[in-house]
Amino acid sequence: MKILAIESSCDETAASVVEGGRKVLSDVVASQIEEHKLYGGVVPEIASRRHVESISGVVNRSLADAGCGLKDIDAVAVTYAPGLIGALLVGVSFAKGLAMAEDKPLIPVHHIAGHIAANYITHPDLEPPFLCLVISGGHSHIVEVLSYTRYRVIGRTRDDAAGECFDKVARTLGFPYPGGKYIDGAAKNGSRTAFKFTHPKVSGGEYDLSFSGLKTAVINLVHNAEQRGESLSREDVAASFQKTVADILGEKLSAAAKDLGAKKIVVAGGVSANSGIRAKMSAVAKALGAELYLPELKYCGDNAAMIGAQAYYDFLAGRRADESLNAAATLSLEDISL
Q: Does residue 40 carry a pLDDT above 90?
């Protein structure tokens, strides 16, 4: 079964043709990073306009790269939630029109479910159930993946997502947007113990996360040094900060895995590309005697291949949409469980 998948939840216009949920025939991504870099972050209105300009060409390129036409496609899939509402609407509208015009089934896919499914592409042997840490610019979740289409969110951030924290700290240190990769690069040349940052405590949610206080602590450290005319090593701050984020994530994931008896640990989302966090998760899995699954680097960030992978299992479970499908800026994974 070949699925044409479309992703436009933020600032990447992407299309992919995926066969059988695991084989990627094409994977095209039109990035807007250079434009949003001018503003230090994603400007939603600009992102939406660029999606409109790019989506037709991206879809055509994806079909061409896969060596097939619309007649060879069995279904159309699209990210419909969560994300920037204007950006999502571009992809949803295009996918609906395409599916109706070609008389193809339309499969609505949850963005976070897509990130989880990126691991099905990298690891053909991976099957639920497993415990998954989803960490990206907009999301930080600990998810019990019960089946290909059933989820239980047992932990989530109360404020900032891990990726957002990386970007804000990077901006404070003078790095360009998106800051995560610059923090990672600088951290490799810094001391992980130069600065000690506290681990935020969250009441009422055993596995819940919080990054707002950590972000503020780093910003205050840098600004106070500037006001005193003192110099700080960006590399040391980056390394200490990155270690703290990795330790916080590792502590929560480890606790959840122990309590649930999880022996398969999966990490997904854009921040899963961070080398320090990948190393920490490897150590956590080893200490637990669990198998660790990490997505290939090119499938960590937003892409349509992951949407096509998840769409296959949603299709098998009977998920379909019609012309009434709408986008949703926020939507829990648990609300879409089948």
A: no
Strand partners, 143: 132, 153
Q: Which two tokens stand for residue 31?
A: 């990035």
Q: Do domains 2-116+299-336 and 128-298 have the same CATH topology?
A: yes
Extents of the domains making up the chain: 2-116+299-336, 128-298
CA–CA separation, 141 and 132 (whole Å): 8
Its pTM stands at 0.95
The answer to whether the CB of 268 falls within 8 A of the CB of 120 is no
The answer to whether residue 28 scores a pLDDT higher than 90 is: yes
Name the CATH superfamily housing domain 2-116+299-336.
ATPase, nucleotide binding domain (3.30.420.40)
Beta-carbon-side half-sphere exposure of residue 63 (alpha carbons within 13 Å): 16
* Res. 337 pLDDT band, cuts 50 70 90: confident
Neighbours of 86 (CB within 10 A): 18
Please tell me the least confidently modeled range out of 173-177, 278-282, 290-294: 173-177
325, 89 contact by CB (below 8 A): no
Q: How far from chain centre, in Å, is Cα 1?
A: 25
Number of residues in the chain: 338
CA dist 313 and 317 (Å) reads 6
Q: Determine the pLDDT at residue 201.
A: 83
* Kind plus residue range of the DSSP H or E element containing 131: strand 130-135
Task: Indicate whether 76 pLDDT > 90.
Answer: yes
Rounded to whole angstroms, the Cα distance separating 144 from 310 reads 16
Distance CA 126, CA 224 (A): 48
Q: Which fold has domain 128-298?
A: Nucleotidyltransferase; domain 5 (3.30.420)
Rounded to 10 deg, the angle between the 234-260 and 180-187 helix axes is 100
CA angle 298, 302, 305 (to 5 degrees): 70
